[in-house]
Amino acid sequence: MSGESTVNGTFLPAVVLITGGAGFIGSNLVRWILRNVSDVIVVNLDLLTYAGNIESLQDVVELHGPEGSGRYFFIRADIRDSEVLARVLGGVAVEQSTGRRIPSIDAVLHLAAESHVDRSILGPAAFISTNVVGTHTLLECVRAELSLRSRPFRFVNVSTDEVYGSLAPEEPAFTEAHPLAPNSPYSASKAGADCLVRAYRETFHLPVITTRCSNNYGPFQFPEKLVPLMITKAMQDEPLPLYGDGLNVRDWLHVEDHVSGIWMTLTRGQEGEVYNLGGDAEITNLELVRMLLDELGRPHSLINFVADRPGHDRRYAMNATKSQVELGWAPRHTLANGLRETTAWYAENRDWWVRVKTKAQHPMEIHRSIA
Fold first, then answer.
1. According to the model, what pLDDT value does residue 364 have?
2. Spatial separation of the C-alpha atoms in residues 49 and 158, rounded to whole Å
3. pLDDT value, residue 5
4. C-alpha to C-alpha distance for 74 and 61, rounded to whole angstroms
5. Candidate from 47-61, 128-142, 182-196 with smallest mean pLDDT
6. How far is residue 16 from each of residues 41, 88, 102, measured CA to CA in Å?
7. CA 79 from centre of chain
8. Which residues lie below 8 Å from residue 95, measured CB to CB, with a gap of 6+?
9. Is the pLDDT score of 370 beyond 70?
10. Which residues are catalytic?
11. Which of 82, 193, 223, 277 fits 213 for a cystine, CB–CB 3.0-4.6 Å?
């Protein structure tokens, strides 16, 4: 058995598997854990699809790979590949690039997912396959591993506020008790995954917890998402496409606040529970884009209203009181400061996002916004 333990009600894993750790939130989570939690080993399993970028973790490899602390491993694999998952979970897999043996896992942070709403409208099947079938495969592999080698273990399923559906302007913010009412193929696939996670708790007593976050922003975000899309287009003095009237409301959460909440959920959360992680920063998409333009010193005339997308949820808002009370978590970034930091990061890392956009061209022209 690896060195996991529970001290004063806090779960302390020794080896954490992060699925989708080369994506936007995943790469920030990998970096945050290695920077803030001593001795924990992080295993990153990612297929490196268009939104996964191993370049985002070059500094992590240098500091914590085989030539550094040795606390970081990377496996290129699909979460639908049960054979690979079984080997990784059981501690018999080796890192492909180095041959280092990966120690057995005692916690899973499940972030691997197809996550772009527009892409889900054009091709729902990929979202069902990755988000539903992939989550089912991972749950089955964890169940099999714990049946063979029982040990303290936790599985955190990282989900989204979109599973709750849409709120009217006067409705109170989503709580964890709000019914699931997804409106896009993407959010339906995430709701399906959430229901599977719940079912594996109720039926098989798997030690699972689910988090649901509001819209994330911050460094290393793929440039088809709203904030980096608008920043990068504004920096090139291109029109900024904004759906409908721009008055759709979203709650915004800096990615570093999100990943700290994921870690607190893993270590302090109650098994079987759901925790909302929100930024307490409701704002219309139009107001947000204007803030970005002001930060970049570009004119509001760059905003270009385009035809709305099908099933576009009007408002999301998150009540994170439960996370604040039970986990001791709260966002540290204000929206103004977070956007200032984010625009500065994209200005300083132009080569990164230019390469990412060039590499990841898709049959759908990447010009839509997402929020």
1. 38
2. 19
3. 64
4. 9
5. 47-61
6. 6, 11, 11
7. 15
8. 73, 74, 75, 101, 102
9. no
10. 161-162, 186
11. 277
